[in-house]
């Protein structure tokens, strides 16, 4: 069966380069689309063709569906890879791409829509036998807030139906607080997502964020590639991710894996996806499903040896998965440090020219980045400029390798979060893997 002739990469930065590399290995031609601020991006230079799709502002370029579709038409691309962020979880875009006779490298618009609505996502998972966070089965309003909260049990967390990423979440600990919390959450949801609907869950106090990577094809084959522990976050931005989770037993992993596989198979899910869970006291609770490739996918690639972006492209072309669940063996340990162009203390963005750049190398090191010596980090986009991913036989070896490679990494001219990672890797809690979703914020508050 044949693959695509030419893929348009509807993204920028390191993930655009990551996708381009997969295309090259599959002998697929590439089209880069870029804003006027990104003509010097590495993937633009390496692509077979490039099209400028608009000014620096994302809403006039990377989010502009008509411009991206025009670029695909003009260059004769037969597929579009959306990467992450931007239009990657926009069902309207996925639909429009397909209506133009172009393949969207991702799930169906129906699956994107279903998982974009967090109430529907939870309902679907309940029906499929996946354990979810206890909570309301539908929307809550100011009128039934107290009644629901007493059924769910305090403390409760109010979340936006169209949300994700923590925007518009409110905790309430009593009847006194809950009505106002629902009102506030609704207002924030309306302002951020244009939809004021909210739902309610039992608030878990000290969970870990553990997510499962899944992939499905159009022939009914599914597999999971194990979990990633993404508990080390600041303001809902992941900072450090690792696989496998230091908190899971093999039994817990296998058991959740088979539940997830069954669910994904029944859904008829196609492409790569991630089920996000909270994990507390040995129990898993489904929160949300992401229908895209994620920033932290490399840690999974390192411990499984599977190229997830190639699999995405293959299954989008109608090929079966290149492996089955029995072929998946988790080998060693992988850690990813997100390197942002930010002040490591204040986290204020630090765009500008990189005056000297030396990446670490050697056994077990992978650097996914689009930047180079002399590159100017534009101020218009996400501040992540590189991902340092290490692999080791054991978690201990991986930690030593993180420290060693951070010490080798030179990025001059701008501030980066490398010094933060240098501190984290030597911290006793991090060394022992003893952390939850609040660990980093508490640590930073102590440091300040
Ligand atoms: C929760 C929770 C505790 N209990 N849900 C934050 C982002 C959004 N996707 C879900 N989030 C949370 N949901 C219940 N029922 C705590 C969080 C949360 C969090 C989750 C993962 C990683 C970091 C976090 C930081 C603060 C709160």
Q: Say which CATH homologous superfamily of the largest domain is assigned.
A: ATP-grasp fold, B domain
Helix content: 25-40%
CATH class of the largest domain: Alpha Beta
CATH architecture verdict of the largest domain: 2-Layer Sandwich
Kindly estimate the percentage of residues that lie in beta strands according to DSSP.
25-35%
| Most strands sheet | 8 strands, antiparallel
In angstroms, what separates the terminal alpha carbons? 58 Å
Shape: globular
The rounded Rg comes to 22 Å
What layout of secondary structure does this protein have?
Layout: E1 6-9, H1 13-25, E2 29-35, H2 42-46, E3 49-54, H3 65-75, E4 79-81, H4 91-99, E5 103-104, H5 109-116, H6 118-127, H7 145-152, E6 156-160, E7 170-172, H8 175-193, E8 198-202, E9 208-216, E10 222-234, E11 237-243, H9 250-267, E12 271-280, E13 283-290, H10 297-304, H11 308-316, E14 333-340, E15 352-353, E16 356-358, E17 365-369, E18 376-377, E19 384-392, H12 395-408, E20 410-412, H13 418-425, H14 428-432, H15 439-447
Parallel strand pairs: 1-2, 1-4, 2-3, 4-5
Antiparallel strand pairs: 6-7, 6-8, 9-10, 9-12, 10-11, 11-14, 12-13, 14-19, 15-18, 16-20, 17-19
Helix pairs in contact: 4-5, 7-8, 12-13
The structure holds ligand MV4.
Residues 133, 157, 164-166, 201-204, 209, 233, 236, 278, 287-288, 437 line the site of ligand MV4.
């Amino acid at each position: 069966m044949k693959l695509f002739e030419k893929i348009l990469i509807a993204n920028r930065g390191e993930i655009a380069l990551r996708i381009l590399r997969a295309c090259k290995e599959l002998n697929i031609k590439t089209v880069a689309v870029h804003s006027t601020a990104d003509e010097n991006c590495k993937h633009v230079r390496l692509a077979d063709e490039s099209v400028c799709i608009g000014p620096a502002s994302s809403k006039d370029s990377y989010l502009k569906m008509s411009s991206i579709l025009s670029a695909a038409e003009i260059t004769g691309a037969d597929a579009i890879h959306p990467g992450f962020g931007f239009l990657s979880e926009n069902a309207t875009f996925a639909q429009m791409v397909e209506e133009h006779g172009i393949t969207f490298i991702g799930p169906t618009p129906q699956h994107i829509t279903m998982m974009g609505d967090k109430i529907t996502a939870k309902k679907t998972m309940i029906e499929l036998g996946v354990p979810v966070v206890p909570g309301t089965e539908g929307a809550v309003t100011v009128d039934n807030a107290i009644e629901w909260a007493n059924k769910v049990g305090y403390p409760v967390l109010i979340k936006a139906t169209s949300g994700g990423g923590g925007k518009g979440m409110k905790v309430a600990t009593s009847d006194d607080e809950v009505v106002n919390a629902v009102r506030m959450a609704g207002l924030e949801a309306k302002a951020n997502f244009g939809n004021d609907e909210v739902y309610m869950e039992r608030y878990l106090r000290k969970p870990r964020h553990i997510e499962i990577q899944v992939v499905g094809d159009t022939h009914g084959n599914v597999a999971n590639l194990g979990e990633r522990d993404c508990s080390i976050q600041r303001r809902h931005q992941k900072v450090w991710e690792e696989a496998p989770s230091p908190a899971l037993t093999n039994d817990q992993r296998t058991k959740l894996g088979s539940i997830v596989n069954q669910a994904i198979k029944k859904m008829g899910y196609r492409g790569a996806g991630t089920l996000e869970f909270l994990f507390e006291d040995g129990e898993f609770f489904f929160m949300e499903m992401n229908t895209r490739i994620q920033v932290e996918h490399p840690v999974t690639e390192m411990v499984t040896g599977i190229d997830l972006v190639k699999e995405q492209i293959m299954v989008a072309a109608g090929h079966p998965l290149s492996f089955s669940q029995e072929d998946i063996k988790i080998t060693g340990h992988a850690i990813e440090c997100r390197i942002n162009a930010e002040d490591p203390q204040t986290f204020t963005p630090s765009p500008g020219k990189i005056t000297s750049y030396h990446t670490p190398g050697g056994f077990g090191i992978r650097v996914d980045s689009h930047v180079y010596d002399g590159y100017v980090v534009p101020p218009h986009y996400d501040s992540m400029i590189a991902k340092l991913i290490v692999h080791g036989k054991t978690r201990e070896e991986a930690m030593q390798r993180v420290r060693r490679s951070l010490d080798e990494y030179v990025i001059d001219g701008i501030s980066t979060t490398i010094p933060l990672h240098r501190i984290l890797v030597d911290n006793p809690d991090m060394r022992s893997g003893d952390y939850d979703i609040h660990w980093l914020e508490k640590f930073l508050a102590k440091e300040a």
